[in-house]
Amino acid sequence: MRTRVHVVGCGLIGTSIGMALSRKGFQVTLSDASPTAVALARDLGAGMPASAADAAPDVVVVAAPPDVAASVVVDQLTAYPSAVVTDVASMKAKVLDDVAEAGADLTRYVGSHPMAGRERSGAVAARADLFEGRTWVVCPGPASSPRAAAEVEQIARATGAATVTMGAEEHDEAVAAVSHLPQVAASLVAARLRDLPDDALALCGQGVRDVTRIAESDPMLWTQILAGNAAAVAPVLDRMAADLDAVRQAVSALGAESRADGARGVVAKAIADGQLGHARIPGKHGSAPTAYATVIAVVPDRAGALARLFQDVGDAGINLEDLRLEHGVGAQVGLAELSVLPAVAERLREVLSHKGWSVHE
Ligand SMILES: NC(=O)C1=CN([C@@H]2O[C@H](COP(=O)(O)OP(=O)(O)OC[C@H]3O[C@@H](n4cnc5c(N)ncnc54)[C@H](O)[C@@H]3O)[C@@H](O)[C@H]2O)C=CC1
Ligand SMILES: O=C(O)C(=O)Cc1ccc(O)cc1
Question: ACT domain: from which residue to which, for each copy (predicted)?
Fold first, then answer.
């Protein structure tokens, strides 16, 4: 019998989950506070709108905003007394605490968090491959049954994600550093650009684009995430503020007098510490993050053709973030799908066309 999954919240994440699971043969039903979101998710192939005639789901995935996640989880545990319920909110301890406080059946609740997303919200931004090759954290609480944890892992893996199991607090401390602080940093850096004259903005290079991509994120969502994980985020922000202040003082000292003993050491250490931290980020794995743009080049099935393509990409000074090769059926060509940062995709298309490649979006 096909596993029945009910998705509550048909935004970016819920719709993407529905699309991925439907493609894998799960029977997915959809609900949302907004009927338009449900209709859109259905049109995108995420599943069928839930109706009173449906059989009870085996698993409910709550993909509603963080500030309502716990209450929706409680409602779903009550509505479906034998279903396993998970939520995908970006913080886990607060949701678990709130579900526990409501007196719900914790044996059937297992929080989780896909470490994949986009800086855009809503069903329109959903992608069936959003979780492909990404990590999905599963956080069973002390009362969760092993069966419930296994069901949630099965759902996460069916979307193409790799699961890791962690306690809620351990998860929250980790995401405070790897997700929540980066969001604050990106937003604050991008905010510096707001009043910059156009002539200065014209100088924006790849560095500022890399650092600020997620500054496009939804303020409502992130206010809820930072409030919901405040206990773990605050100490990370304190350490960041202390480091920033040290660099600020050193640079101010250098501005006041060129000798400024010790100041260069402080600056160099900050940059070197950044190198050490950056070197620890695990490499890319799985398919290209959906945030990349793809440029498709037709590659003749001839020795050295691919090498020439890579050479041309490299000569343009463009970093290839990922690559997929499709082999043409019935033709002596292959299709090289080049994933690059969206900001350089148009230039890559122009450069490759100019060099004689047949290029497609
Ligand atoms: N955006 C991202 O990149 C990621 C988000 N998450 C988590 O996923 C959850 C959903 O986020 P997104 O999909 O980005 O948000 P979204 O804003 O795209 O979608 C949220 C959906 O929930 C619906 N909704 C609101 N209140 C509801 C309620 N009481 N009952 C049912 N539906 C309700 C909204 O109408 C909307 O369609 C959040 O908890 C977020 O923390 C997790 C990983 C990544
Ligand atoms: O856009 C990106 O790169 C992200 O990392 C998105 C994201 C946003 C919120 C999460 O809780 C998890 C992932």
Answer: 294-361
Specify the CATH number for 293-360; select among 3.40.50.2020, 3.20.170.30, 3.30.70.260, 3.30.420.40.
Answer: 3.30.70.260
Render pLDDT for 298-312 as a digit per residue (tens, 0 to 9).
999 889 999 999 999
Nearest CA to ligand 1 atom 25: 64
Considering the domain 172-279, what is its CATH architecture? Orthogonal Bundle (1.10)
Question: Is CATH 3.30.1360.70 what the domain over 4-166 is classified as, yes or no?
Answer: no
| pLDDT recorded at residue 292 | 81
> What pLDDT does 335 receive?
87
Of ligand 2's atoms, which has the minimum distance to the CA of residue 90?
A: 11
Nearest Cα neighbor of 286 from 136, 172, 87, 154 is: 136
> Which residues approach ligand 1 with their CB closer than 6 A?
8-14, 32-34, 37, 63-66, 68-69, 72, 88-90, 113-114, 117-118, 121-122, 221, 225
- CA 115, CA 9: separation in Å to the nearest integer? 18
pTM: 0.82
Pocket test for ligand 2, best of 112, 136, 179 (most atoms within 8 A of CB): 179
pLDDT value of position 202: 95
Which residues of the chain register pLDDT less than 70?
Answer: 283-291, 327-331
ipTM: 0.98
pLDDT, residue 287, reads 41
Query: Please, which residues bridge with residue 59 across strands?
Result: 5, 84
